[in-house]
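Researcher: Next entry in the queue.
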Amino acid sequence: MLRLALAQANATVGDLEGNAALVLELSRQASAAGASLVAFPEMFLTGYPMEDLALRESFIDASKAAVVRLNEALVAAGLADLTVVVGYLDRDDDVTDVLGKPRHHPRNAVAVLRNGRVLGRYFKHHLPNYGVFDEFRYFVPGSKPCQFDVDGVSVAIAICEDLWQDGGPVQWARESGADVLVVVNGSPYERNKDDVRLALAQRRAAEAGCVLAYVNLVGGQDELVFDGDSLVVTSEGQLLARAAQFVDELLVVDVSPPTVGSVATRLSDEAEVYTALTVGLRDYVRKNGFTDVVFGLSGGIDSALTAALAVDALGAQHVHGVSMPSAYSSQHSRDDAADLAARTGLQLRTVEIEPMVAAFQEQLKLSGLAEENLQARVRGITLMGISNSEGQLVLATGNKSELSVGYSTMYGDAVGAYAPLKDVPKTMVWALSRWRNEVAQQRGQTAPIPSNSITKPPSAELRPGQLDTDSLPDYHLLDDILDDYVERDASAADLVAGGFEPALVERILRLTDVAEFKRRQYPPGPKISLRAFGRDRRLPMTNAWRERPGPHE
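Model: Structure for this entry, 553 residues:
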């Protein structure tokens, strides 16, 4: 019999000692649960993705040394008999640097540890180079299988993309007659990926002709969020066990003979997205050494949802909202900000910006859009001043719809170190806000977001009677166009053929194209969609190409 433990856990990039300590502790727990084999996610010792750290010789050497120390620590802890599969950064020592290959020839590697020895090493065979991935820049692909025995059971290894591509490790496992294929992963979250993941695992298990055990990272790393969702399936497609989403968990299951274990309930679509945003925010703040956040609390829906996320991620005592009314701020917006603070328990202060705006105006004599933007920039200066003085991390509260069309003020509402709603369209902001309130009511708790913040027409309140619809179409229409253009690369002609009015298509696409320079300067935020701004979508800032509904001459 082989009892396997999948250590779905949260690593921190660069924290070799901390990650190794976590491996040791979870190995103790796995052994105590009767497991003979424990597997950790992709590059767990180093954290993932490490980007250009992979090209530093000093970091490669430190990673390799961490494997040696971990091996010694496992023996010292009385865990010599436990087989530990752990991801780390290695390299080819016998190959000289050549043009066209990553410097020092780094390897995305797995070490198999037992009895104080390295039983085997495996190097990732298929390197992804699409979406958020750029692994041809960082790693040299492996070309050999890795297989070993545990309690008379033959175990093969694969790493993440090896599962998504045909051939290689899955085929090798079948050809060698492996009983179990262990796949270690750093697979980032995006909406509905868990459905695709299970189907993929079932298909590959059938191709390999054996049990497939999939262990994934959990937690946030810059703009990526890892959702865990570790699972075990048989070659017939039966789901033996599945871990919860977005939480640390040691999933223990008997794989030889296969025995059904615990299967966690899946989250709803809204719960999944909301949790991803919360985890991304929490880990960005804490892994970067902060405890508290501060942001502008206007009474509008974006800042309201940001507040709810921050309170859920960090606790109300660590969340600081700043109401910054100007001459054009409505009383209901001030009231809504105060209402949200009372509902959630976050810290709220008021800073009247009109005297500061007047001081600038006395010198600059601005008008029109420049005057409107001045108010936003005074708010940005205020937040950054508070942050510098008190040590809180500033959150930008803008959403993906606004970011798409450049509906934000550089050095104003766009200031901050992190943007929780960066990949969340405006229509989804409303949906998540309603969902969060419904959950609170179902639990007998106070709904965190005032209903008025959800129902009132959105406005930047930078001039009398201003509404977002003065500058933009209805957000449901805007998001429909942007979903096709940003997420699916539809052309202007495609959009018009799909029923959108030509003049509107040309206007929205132009706004999106010319706002690239703004997006480059916007803070990072958690990826939840198929195509997030940043790693996923990279367009030149200087770009004369414009999509037009008709044929290009």
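Model: The first strand starts at residue 2 and ends at 8.
Researcher: Noted, moving on.
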